[in-house]
Each structure stands twice: as structure tokens, then as C-alpha cells.
């Protein structure tokens, strides 16, 4: 099982998994927003998700239009609804549910 602290995964994968692990219940981030945050692309984040999804809150990562992943036999919708994620039909209401991420304090003295 791949974990964010696993030394066998790349630094990029570790950064992606760390961001996903911070997304609170009821909130989501898009593949592209995660990519922007960690210095990669939506496609690269998607690749990480195909290899490590089961070890993280995969259902909290959605397309930019709010469409959840279609894999896992539609389980994403059930999980998102169980967390009271704001929805519009079968899509996440991105205006209300998109999480911007925890502040990045890496450059702050202190």
C-alpha cells in the first residue's frame, strides 16, 4: 500500500497525496487545482490517482466542472453525498465546495 511517507514514491506523488489528505470532508479540489498547487498538471495528478487512489480520499478530487470520477462503480457520488458536499445534480457545486487548500507557510519565517 502506498502512503505519502513511503520512500518508494516520487516527491511529486508525495506532494499530491499530501494535498489530497488535507481536503476536508464536504469539500473538493479539481485535478488542475492540485496540479497548480504542487507544480504539475491535471493530467499528472490524474496519473497519481490511478496508481494511489485507494490510499487517499480519492472521491474529493473532481474535474474542474464538478464531475466526480466515474471509476469505482459510481461510489464517488455516494461518498460525496454522505459527506454533505454541496451538489448540483450529479456534479459538485464548485462555487460552494471547492477547497482552496491550507495556506502555504513554507516561505514564512518563524
Would you spell out the secondary-structure blueprint of this structure?
Blueprint: H1 11-22, E1 29-30, H2 31-38, H3 42-52, E2 61-62, H4 75-82, E3 87-88, E4 91-92, H5 94-97
Parallel strand pairs: 1-2
Antiparallel strand pairs: 3-4
Helix pairs in contact: 1-2, 2-3
Task: Describe this protein's structure.
Residues 11-83 form the Methylated-DNA-[protein]-cysteine S-methyltransferase DNA binding domain. One of its GO terms (molecular function) is methyltransferase activity. Keywords: DNA damage, Methyltransferase, Transferase. This protein has 110 residues and is mostly helical. It has a single domain, classed as Winged helix-like DNA-binding domain superfamily/Winged helix DNA-binding domain (Arc Repressor Mutant, subunit A, Orthogonal Bundle). It has five helices and four strands. It has helices at residues 11-22, 31-38, 42-52, 75-82, 94-97; strands spanning 29-30, 61-62, 87-88, 91-92. A two-stranded parallel sheet has the order 1-2. It has a two-stranded antiparallel sheet with strand order 3-4. A hairpin with a 2-residue loop joins strand 3 and strand 4. Helix 1 (11-22) packs across helix 2. The longest helix has 12 residues, at 11-22. The radius of gyration is 14 Å and the shape is globular. The N and C termini lie far apart (35 Å). Mean pLDDT is 87; it is low at 105-110.
Kindly summarize this structure in a few lines:
The protein is mainly alpha-helical and 110 residues long.
Task: Classify the fold: give the CATH topology.
Answer: Arc Repressor Mutant, subunit A
- What's the helical proportion of residues? 25-40%
Describe the strand arrangement of the main beta sheet, using strand numbers.
Answer: 1-2
Give the CATH class.
Mainly Alpha
> Judging from the principal axes of the Cα atoms, what is the shape?
globular
Largest sheet descriptor? 2 strands, parallel
Secondary structure tally: strands: 4
Domain tally: 1
Number of helical stretches of at least 4 residues: 5
Strand-residue proportion: 5-15%
How many whole angstroms does the radius of gyration measure? 14 Å
Which stretches of 5+ consecutive residues score pLDDT under 50? Answer: 105-110
Protein structure class: mainly alpha
Report the CATH superfamily.
Winged helix-like DNA-binding domain superfamily/Winged helix DNA-binding domain
CATH architecture: Orthogonal Bundle
Order of secondary-structure elements = HEHHEHEEH
